[in-house]
């Protein structure tokens, strides 16, 4: 049994994702595919446009056999934390043979070399990095120039400019760090960049698709997503369950900030960013303006969104320290073939497999991380217009295809 | 100098209010009028449709000379607390000669007799009350029947059915309780009941006016409010500062409940109403549904709204115990004539007069109650579409006419 692992968000699943999946299967020749997928909140520091069950359904319709939820603690953090959480989770299933990720670069060797340096930090790299930081460069820039210096490869600057390369490097770092036997592959991405706002070309980005849905309605994206995505989205919107946007949580986040809710226990809060956020919250009731007022070279929009989401979802930074990766396997959905993999995982893994959420307390020794997922759903469904119940994780059936 | 005190909300100020003001002046022959007015949240357990400065402007335009804010702690509580806070505040100004309130009843003697019994609780009343409660009647019903029994006056049942009579009785109780020298008057209300939803007749109710604004726009109410009210509302809405509705705070309140935020320190929470509220919050994301799911004979909509607002505004029930009425005089606005009254108050009162909010800490010994007003404004402005700044109490000029 050859099992491929992929790390996805499917926000929503589009033609580019289908292409990546097909190419990955071709390349790795695996018979089974397991996806680790972000839950109701994603790495951009936003809620997903529709909930995790609807996106798991898309994944299964696309041919994936098993969908596992990436805990919200990791799903809404830095590229490094996101990648570590996802790779560690895939590895802990004990059945994954290879992973395939998309990258703008497409050259695994090059990404791997960068990952090695970043992980091992050889003396010349460390020295160059320190020098650059001393000059007042941002960490990202200092790191980039140090890498160029020690490799003599100027093209690395370009490599580090796109988010899928950066995520790919983090996947490779994580695999090396945990000494995983999983074999990595990369697929060169085609079509628009992840961040592109334009709906055009063969493959549109998820960002441009969400934007088009917001501005023009769901019909506008029909050439860029599979039919099943379109149907799942249509049904969700008709039922008043989405589209969900960060804006929906704006009053809550602003309220917490104006209440002086502490930010000091949130990951990545340092250098006075907390005061800057409080100050911005006193000037606006709109989360977009809040982010604009707060962002800087050092604190990008996405770092700030992560902080705000961790405030909203009560994610304490100590969870990152006290847990070495996810300590449970939460199943969101599976196909017929997925049952076989699940059985195999059950035999091999040391982690509890959560299929019935009601049993989580007896199954997970330290359930603090899992409880963040439950709370994230309680918050997420506040944006529903219908059936906006809490404790949905306890009631929602696993998606089966 | 003869000074009339009135207790108002002006949400918004309409023709019925103008009538009451004119009649009160005629009846009491006072030359000056001081209004104690609810701030940004009102006794119905809702935000006011526009903020306290805009409503103070309406009051001044209507001919009132001085507008004092009723602390939000009292403004958003039971009729008894509302009345006690407002009467105590008026009394502590030390310049008020009489107060005039509207009532459906119009007969001061009758209301006063009821107030006496409720305050003094003679043995036969107490016995009848206890008996009725033993039969499982609600407190309101048990009280009503006990009053009828001891007075032999069956018409009291009808008297106790309308909110302005009930408030009036509470004003009279409060005056007696603090042994105030202020002389009470009542004006028989004309036109629609306070709670009427229909926009009709000579005087429409504030409720029906707000409803018409929400459903049909501001033009629909032009026959029911003075021109200045219309202009102030139009300007406010144009500037993105209102209309503000309870709905605007729905996500925050639901979030707090789904977070399991404790309700036990909130006034009037007993008999398991907290669990009922939590349960309802797990079933809906809409505050109207939440209230519908929670209300009962014992816990009316308005009691539940008070609880939810106290949760939102972080009003602890111990404030009611630890303070014997407002401990500051917050000036919202004054006319030329109002200056004279302010000077007189300054000479006579023992309470600090707050005209510059920045000085509040040095002026108010225990500023916990005042800080609830400041926070209420910070929360209120979250519903603004523009200029949604916090700390507005520090910046907003006093309204002068």
TrEMBL record, chains A, B:
Entry's Gene Ontology BP terms: tRNA modification
EC number(s) on file: 6.3.4.-
Alphabetized NCBIfam families for the sequence: PRK13670.1
HAMAP family from the UniProt entry: TmcAL
Protein origin, superkingdom: Bacteria
Localization terms from the record: Cytoplasm
Family as reported in the entry's similarity comment: Belongs to the TmcAL family.
Catalytic activity as recorded in UniProt: cytidine(34) in elongator tRNA(Met) + acetate + ATP = N(4)-acetylcytidine(34) in elongator tRNA(Met) + AMP + diphosphate
Keywords: ATP-binding, Cytoplasm, Ligase, Nucleotide-binding, RNA-binding, Transferase, tRNA processing, tRNA-binding
Protein name as it appears in the record: tRNA(Met) cytidine acetate ligase
GO cellular component, as recorded: cytoplasm
Entry annotated with the keyword tRNA-binding: yes
Function: Catalyzes the formation of N(4)-acetylcytidine (ac(4)C) at the wobble position of elongator tRNA(Met), using acetate and ATP as substrates. First activates an acetate ion to form acetyladenylate (Ac-AMP) and then transfers the acetyl group to tRNA to form ac(4)C34.
Principal EC category: ligase
Gene encoding the protein: tmcAL
């Amino acid at each position: 049994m050859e099992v491929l692992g992929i790390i996805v968000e499917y926000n929503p699943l589009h033609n580019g994702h289908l292409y990546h999946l097909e190419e990955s299967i071709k390349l790795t020749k695996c018979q089974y595919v397991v996806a680790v997928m972000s839950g109701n909140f994603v790495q951009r520091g936003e809620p997903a446009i529709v909930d995790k069950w609807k996106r798991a359904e898309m994944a299964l319709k696309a041919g994936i056999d098993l969908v596992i939820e990436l805990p919200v603690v990791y799903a809404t953090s830095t590229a490094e934390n996101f990648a570590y959480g996802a790779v560690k989770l895939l590895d802990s299933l004990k059945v994954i043979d290879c992973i395939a990720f998309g990258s703008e670069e497409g050259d695994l060797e090059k990404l791997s070399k960068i990952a090695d340096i970043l992980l091992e930090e050889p003396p010349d790299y460390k020295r160059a990095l320190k020098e650059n930081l001393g000059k007042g460069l941002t960490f990202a820039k200092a790191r980039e120039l140090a890498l160029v210096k020690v490799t003599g490869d100027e093209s690395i600057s370009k490599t580090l400019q796109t988010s899928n390369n950066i995520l790919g490097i983090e996947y490779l770092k994580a695999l090396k760090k945990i000494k995983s036997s999983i074999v990595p592959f990369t697929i060169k991405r085609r079509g628009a960049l992840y961040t592109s706002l334009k709906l055009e070309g063969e493959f549109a980005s998820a960002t441009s698709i969400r934007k088009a849905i917001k501005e023009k309605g769901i019909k506008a994206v029909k050439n860029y997503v599979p039919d099943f995505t379109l149907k799942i989205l249509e049904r969700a919107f008709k039922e008043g369950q989405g589209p969900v946007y960060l804006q929906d949580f704006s009053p809550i986040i602003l309220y917490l900030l104006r209440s002086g809710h502490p930010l000091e226990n949130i990951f990545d809060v340092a250098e006075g960013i907390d005061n800057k956020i409080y100050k911005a919250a006193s000037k606006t009731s709109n989360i977009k303006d809040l982010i604009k007022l707060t962002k800087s070279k050092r604190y990008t929009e996405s770092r700030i969104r992560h902080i705000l989401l961790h405030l909203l979802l009560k994610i304490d930074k100590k969870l990152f320290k006290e847990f070495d990766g996810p300590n449970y396997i939460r199943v969101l959905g599976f196909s017929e073939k997925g049952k076989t993999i699940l059985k195999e995982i059950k035999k091999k893994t040391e982690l509890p497999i959560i299929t019935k959420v009601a049993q989580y307390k007896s199954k997970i020794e330290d359930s603090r991380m899992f409880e963040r997922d439950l709370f994230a759903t309680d918050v997420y469904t506040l944006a529903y217009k219908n059936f906006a119940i809490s404790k949905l994780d306890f009631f929602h059936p696993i998606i089966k295809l």
